[in-house]
Amino acid sequence: MRHLVVIGAGFGALTTAHALRKRDLDAEITIVAPTPSFLYYPSLVWVPSGMRKPDDLRVDVRDFLARNRIGYHQGTVQAITDGGRTVVTDQGRLSNDGLVVASGGRFLRQIPGIDNVLTVCQGGPSAQAIGERIAAMDGGRIALGFAGNPKHKPAMRGGAMFELLFCIDTQLRRAGKRENFELTFFTPNPRPGQRLGERAVQGLLDRLEKLGVTPHLGHPIERFEPDKVVTKGGEIPSDLTIFMPGMTGPAFLDDSELPVTESGHVPVDERAKVDGLEAVYAVGDAAAFPGPSWQAKQAHAADIQGATAAANLIDERKGDVPDHTVRHEIICILDSLDKGVFVFRNDRMQIATPPLTIGHWAKVALEKVYLLQYAPSPLARLRDRPAQPAEQTA
Questions:
Q1: What is the distance between the alpha carbons of residues 27 and 74, in angstroms, rounded to a whole number?
Q2: N or C: which terminus of the chain carries fewer CB neighbours within 10 A?
């Protein structure tokens, strides 16, 4: 029996494991992750306003795995050896006949003073801390920005920072104190959002002006201080700095036998296959694809890549030619708590709508539908419900 291993429990990993099961009903499939939980990162931008709590966005996937006969190895990956055939974790080793690296990446933390910033996509606690800081402020200066990995331009999360900026603006207006705040948006990129298309870029810049946000664009970041952001184009006074660093690959690649790019990612071809290794694939934030320069790293892209990797891995293990290629596209909704800008891009078209109320509700619906597929079944929720204390009588 074939043993197929998927590293990770995020978007790309769960999509890969599910697609593997649908294509091979007999294989043994195992995911490897520190915890059996899935976090819906796109909605973290709603946590600072209180529209969501971190627990609303996290799902225990053990019931989903059981329903699809997917095993779970609880552990942190330390290395990949034997040409990909062995995954070394802090809880033991797993041999495999096929491997997909879908572990996600890491934030680059090389800018001096980066401990002075908060990062929304770092997880629920960080997003909640942003909300607590804003709630405690009656006024002041908030600086929001992002940077990339100069050695792999797609390795960034710029869209999420635009979205968080719009949400914070709405949050402050609802609280009746927007006029007490100075908002600044900064990034080394002189025209941020280019991966979304030129129309989207101009729309974003026009919206910054309309909302009264000060742009500080095109200047490399030198350091962060508790009360300012220092760039080569000047200083940005800030009482609260929210920053999204660029991304690199997972730490275990340092001790693994996989190829690694200058940017710290696993290089793959258009099939998501790692060159020179048998039945080894990589998807999502861990991988560096040779696709178009505008392809951003996002959950939707990881899902597409995961499904493609699964199809090719099954074909390869069956002795067929793995010839499925990744479909490159961007789909996202830039939300502002009450309206959403729908953005779509592929090789043929670019779409960016004005902010629409229906866009916001479409994002809400997408979150609910996506989480539903991994949610425990009613029977599992009943089984796992904490026991009620026995009623006491006098």
A1: 20
A2: C
**Torsions phi, psi for 128 (to 5 deg):** -70, -35
- Asked, colleague to colleague, whether 3-105+249-328 and 109-246 share their fold, the answer is yes
Q: How many residues does the chain have?
A: 394
Give the predicted TM-score (pTM) of the model. Answer: 0.92
Domain locations in the chain? 3-105+249-328, 109-246
State how far the Cα of 331 lies from the Cα of 326, in Å rounded to an integer.
Answer: 15
The CA-CA-CA angle for residues 281, 153, 274, to 5°, reads 15
For the record, the structure tokens of 242 come out as 């929210």
- Write down the CATH number for the domain with range 3-105+249-328: 3.50.50.60
- From first to last of the 394 residues of the chain, give the pLDDT tens digit: 799 999 999 999 999 999 999 999 999 999 999 999 999 999 999 999 999 999 999 999 999 999 999 999 999 999 999 999 999 999 999 999 999 999 999 999 999 999 999 999 889 999 999 999 999 999 999 999 999 888 887 777 888 999 999 999 999 999 999 999 999 999 998 888 777 777 777 888 899 999 999 999 999 999 999 999 999 999 999 999 999 999 999 999 999 999 999 999 999 999 999 989 999 999 999 999 998 888 888 999 999 999 999 999 999 999 999 999 999 999 999 999 999 999 999 999 999 899 999 999 999 999 999 999 999 977 665 555 544 443 333 2
What is the spatial distance between Cα 194 and Cα 188, in angstroms, rounded to a whole number?
13
* 344 CB-contact burial (10 Å; exposed 0-12 / middle 13-18 / buried 19+): middle
Residue in this structure with the two tokens 């915890």, named with its chain if needed: 35
Strands (DSSP E) contained in 213-329 are: 214-217, 221-225, 228-231, 234-237, 240-244, 247-248, 266-267, 280-282, 287-288
Contact between residue 171 and residue 52 where contact means Cβ atoms under 8 Å apart: no
109-246: what fold?
Answer: FAD/NAD(P)-binding domain (3.50.50)
- Distance CA(190)–CA(355), nearest Å, equals 23
User: Could you say which DSSP state residue 64 is in?
Assistant: H
